[in-house]
Amino acid sequence: MNLELILMSENDIAEFKKNVQCAFQKGFEDVFGKCEETILPEKDIDQSLNGKGSVVYKAVLDGETVGGVIVAIDTETQHNHLDLLYVKSGVQGKGIGKSIWYAIEKLYPDTKVWETCTPYFEKRNIHFYVNICGFHITEFFNEKHPMLDTPDDFIGDGNEGMFVFQKEM
User: Fold this and answer.
1) Number of domains forming the structure of the chain
2) Residue 109: which CATH number?
3) Is the pLDDT of residue 41 over 60?
4) Hey, is 81 helix, strand or coil?
């Protein structure tokens, strides 16, 4: 697969937001059914886009945008965070997510630890991070072990089940 990660320009941001929201909405609705509420609000995407050390890429395959990723890079500690990784709806299940992730690893070879999280219901994501990308589950937030500093409007409030994953390099 000849996938290329390209740094995003301001002109790409609107399409990125639309595509990531569509992918996250579909993942949620595949499990819980139709939902009128936006599962990934634009302000949450903006928070990742504007976060400290944030770097944003679009994934391009044969001239077509097929996904994207936001990472937060801490050049001092090299403990980096995967904020968002998405594969565009309609092209999932073809190894694109795996290609995106391994391209990120190549771009940041000095990383000591990668961290990310996903909700408990996203079995596809849990499989992806653990079985495909080599992450390990390090924490499970739920009502008995609440996630601190969760935004008030966070879907599911973080205490209904969020897995934290880490990958030591």
Assistant:
1) 1
2) 3.40.630.30
3) yes
4) strand
